[in-house]
Specification:
heterodimer; A: alpha/beta; five-stranded mixed beta sheet; B: 261 residues; mainly alpha; globular
């Protein structure tokens, strides 16, 4: 019995070493820069990543796009990452509070909400108040995620009492429901409508100015590649970065 | 007795396997905010989501039994051509990422879907964003578990009892009802339990097809996911509730219907 136990303990001790051995490939010839970024940055950052690889020979940029709060949790739980770009100051805060950002996060972009409607606007939505109309199927982000909080603010400013048919887990899910015609309208970011092309239409509304989302970016203290990390943040804040972000539909400070 | 009964090439991987499955659960328990557990559990939204989860997964299991047992019988007992292909098709929801399953359901049963369009126009029924939609999404994902278990049980059952009944003049339906079904009852129960457990944990297809609205389509897994966005401790509490309820129910059912050695 004792012999069996020793074997178990030995195997359990060897397992993490073996797993770590698998992950540690690569070496000095090609370095990997890991950038965790909000899903809404997919289009803008992919282009910037390619530009960065061209100007920094030997650096391989790898993106992980996802919900900002999920990414923030991955960082605070110790996932190795070099740069974090979040969709709201609130989702950057836990990372900054844990002293995991090198320097204060910098705001590099702003996103505002628009009403997304299926092509042809079958629900004839013109203003934010139209969303309160009976029989109109509206989807919003859940209040727990940044786009949901922004939607709530905008609707409050407009004095519109909207009961959505669904509170989606992220902004892309809202867009899917509108694109497939399941919903007559949804509140998404302007960048999402631009990325969706002709499959949805965007209706701008003045109250969106009161619910603008700031996007902060920061290099991380635990960065395996601290130098390229700082360079990537600089690229995002540069004229080239601003141009890419503007093309994607962001406003830049 | 047991020590002599379990050879170490089996005991070692078995122990590792158990640790692999149980350690994440221990991780949840370690992080549980025990001091605030009471008030968090008493929140009406938690009970609402739990009630909805139990109701929908039970209804989904009922639907799976109604459709899945006959399907398993056809696969196991009738030798129609192309049976292998059909059997492979039945397992598609197992392989399909549930979110894709949800989109596929929208394409068929959604407001602009092939069937959904007709349902809306002629009967005024829309399924997305409804509790019925939740049941359908869960049944879609969970049914293969039932069909595969029941088919396996049918293939393992001795056909001579059925043949004997048939020679005594029983019709195929009577044979199915009086001989086959009682014979494979443990398999059906095991399949139903798997199916129910899968339906209870369903997330992707549900949120894609039925959306998320408290009291109507927000089941426990959806509530857990959204709580994770802002309040990870609440998410852990919700997960624990779901785990406790399911483990208690599964343990009770297993002892009653699927008697082990």
């Amino acid at each position: 019995m004792i012999r069996h136990l020793t074997a178990v303990v030995a195997a359990a001790a060897l397992l993490p070493a073996a797993v770590a051995g698998c992950g540690g490939s690569g070496g000095a010839s090609s370095r990997t820069l890991t950038v965790l970024a909000a899903a809404s940055l997919t289009e803008a950052f992919t282009g910037l990543g390619e530009a960065f690889e061209r100007s920094h020979a030997g650096v391989d940029v790898r993106f992980s796009f996802g919900g900002s709060s999920t990414l923030a949790r991955q960082i605070t739980e110790g996932a190795p990452a070099d740069v974090f770009a979040a969709a709201s100051p609130a989702t950057m805060r836990p990372v900054a509070d844990a002293r995991l950002t090198s320097g204060a996060p910098r705001t590099f972009a702003r996103n505002r909400l628009v009403i997304a409607v299926p092509p042809g606007n079958p629900g004839r939505v013109r203003t934010l108040r139209d969303l309160a109309r009976r029989g109109l199927k509206v989807v919003l982000c859940a209040p727990q995620v940044p786009c949901g909080a922004a939607a709530r603010t905008a609707l409050d400013v407009a004095g519109a009492k909207v009961t959505p048919v669904s509170q989606e887990q992220d902004v892309k899910a809202v867009l899917t429901k509108v694109r497939m015609g399941e919903a007559d309208a949804g509140l998404v970011y302007r960048t999402d409508v631009r990325a969706a092309g002709a499959r949805v239409e965007g209706v701008e509304f003045p109250e969106s100015a009161r619910a603008v989302n700031d996007y902060p970016v920061a290099a991380l203290t635990g960065a395996p590649q601290p130098e390229p990390a700082r360079a990537f943040v600089a690229l995002v804040l540069s004229a080239e970065g601003r141009a890419a972000l503007t093309r994607a539909g962001f406003e830049v400070p | 007795m047991t020590r002599r009964g379990v050879p170490w090439p089996l005991a070692l991987p078995a122990l590792l396997g158990l640790a692999f499955l149980v350690l994440p659960l221990a991780g949840l328990l370690v992080r549980t905010p025990w001091s605030t557990l009471g008030p968090r559990l008493a929140e009406p939204r938690v009970l609402e989501a739990l009630r909805l989860s139990l109701v929908t997964s039970t209804l989904a299991t009922g639907l799976c039994l109604l459709l899945g047992v006959p399907l398993a019988w056809v696969l196991a007992r009738s030798g129609f051509p192309g049976r292998g292909v059909v059997r492979a098709l039945v397992t598609v929801p197992l392989v399909l990422p549930p979110v894709v399953g949800g989109v596929a359901l929208l394409l068929v049963l959604g407001r602009r879907g092939i069937v959904g369009q007709w349902l809306d126009a002629s009967l005024g029924i829309t399924l997305p964003f409804t509790t019925t939609g939740v049941v359908l999404a869960e049944a879609f994902v969970a049914m293969p578990f039932l069909v595969i278990s029941v088919e396996g049980a049918l293939r393992g059952a001795d056909p001579r009892y059925e043949e004997a009944a048939a020679t005594l003049g029983a019709s195929r339906w009577t044979v199915f009802r009086r001989i086959t079904l009682p014979m494979v009852a443990p398999g059906v129960a095991a399949g139903a339990i798997l199916c129910w457990a899968r339906a209870l944990g369903e997330f992707g297809a549900t949120i894609t097809f039925a959306g998320n609205f408290p009291g109507r389509t927000q089941t426990m897994p959806l509530a857990v996911y959204l709580a994770l966005e802002t309040d990870p401790e609440a998410a852990i509490v919700l997960s624990l509730v779901l785990l406790t309820v399911s483990v208690v129910i599964l343990a009770a059912l297993r002892d009653r219907w699927v008697s082990g050695p």
